[in-house]
Amino acid sequence: MKRTSRTMKAMLKSGLAVAAMTAVTVAALPGNAYAAIWTENQQLGLRALSADGGQCIMADYRGSFMDFCNMWGNALNWNLESVYPDAPNHAYANVRIRSSNLNKCLTVLNTVGPGGFGNEVSPRTCDGSPAQEWASTRSADGYLNYFNFQYRVCLDGGYGDTYGYPEEGCNAHGENHYQDWYFLPAA
User: Fold this and answer.
1) How many CB atoms lie within 10 A of CB 15?
2) Using one digit for the tens of pLDDT, what is the confidence trace for 52-96?
3) CATH 3.30.300.30 for domain 23-185
4) CA distance 125 to 107
5) Is the dihedral of CA 159, 73, 61, 137 positive or negative?
6) Which residues contact 27 (CB under 8 A, 6 or more apart)?
7) With contact defined as beta carbons under 8 Å apart, do 106 and 123 qualify?
8) What span, in angstroms and rounded, lies between the C-alpha atoms of 31 and 44?
9) Number of Cβ within a 10 Å radius of residue 84
10) Which DSSP letter does residue 173 get?
11) N vs C: which end of the chain shows fewer Cβ within 10 Å?
């Protein structure tokens, strides 16, 4: 009985340690969303502005925009969650990008983005729609890239805002640093 109790305690501690981690990758399970990515409370930094003290996606009641990392506390924290099925053969994960603070997801809107082109991207109530589904890939330089298939746009952080850049201008080889993202620890 004591051995079982020790084993259970060890398993519980192990489970708590895993739950406390900010980034967890889980093995694929047939018949579900595969849970390939589950990252919590991370700031999404923009490569193009990292030399300026770092700028991250910020979410508040006004929407989403770029601002200095670590200045807004929880409003800068995001969860990446595999709630959609992975691409065939798990080539990449399809995720939602959910604000830890507002419990809203980055959503591509059917409105023109900043600069007069592309689509606006802003936090909206998470509803599982295709407008909230982001293909999560890596650039040739190892940064994160996000692509939405419904609107055929990639997540861009130019113009001090978040918006969907049209597919023909999306990052293929790390040439557009406004589409390269990386994680910073939560503020």
Assistant:
1) 10
2) 678 899 888 778 888 888 777 777 889 999 988 888 887 888 999
3) no
4) 9
5) positive
6) none
7) yes
8) 30
9) 19
10) S
11) N
